[in-house]
Amino acid sequence: MPALPLQGRLIVVTRPLAQAGALAAGIRAQGGAACLFPLLEISPWPDDALLRVSAARLADYRFAVFVSPNAVRYALPLLLSAGAWPPATRAVAVGERTAQDLRAAGVRDCLYPHPQTDSEALLALPEFSESAVRGKKAVIFRGGGGRELLAQTLTARGAQVDFVPVYQRSGPDTASATWTEFCARLAAGDFAALTLSSSEALRYLVERCPPAQTTMLRQTPLFASHARIVAAARAAGFLRVIETETGDAGLLAGLNAYNWRQS
Question: Does position 1 have pLDDT exceeding 60, yes or no?
């Protein structure tokens, strides 16, 4: 029987723990081992006042945009607490996985771009053209300090935009046992590859990696699910950066197709 594509290889999964399970399971199914090393800690936004206001006015919005699965996780329960999703409000997701989470919660007819999954692709949809959004109200549920492109562009096209922070991100604790173990295994050359789906996570990794492990870090193949992350990784000095399709399926397909003999 031929060996599975990832047989004997240890792959680092850097997603937040709550979102790492599917990719880790996929890696194991292909014969590999997954090292769960979350580079982002996700927690609720400390003040839900804006979210409560938006929940009370949800029917007034033509578009309700969720930028990520975390936006769904931290916003939707309160939005639905008063009743069913208002039929005149179009639910919008920046990516397919976010749309899946909305559908799983009972929010149907969700608009999202495909196959590309980012703000640029969303803004290119005809439903978000200037003629389609002018004079309409939109609310964007996101993390604190997120990208401004979506809100700025919709405002420039004549929409009335509110954005509501519903979660916050923080980097890894470098004093933790998890971080210490990661650095030790990195120095030992245990990792076959890193997977990344966030530019912010990449920034934390580069900024906090001990200087003694920097060379090994940059030599480890890095699989990234967006061109923006790829560009940032190359600018940070990573020598082998592989761009994949989006989502867990894209990262797994990239890992499976990689020529490991060149590593």
Answer: no
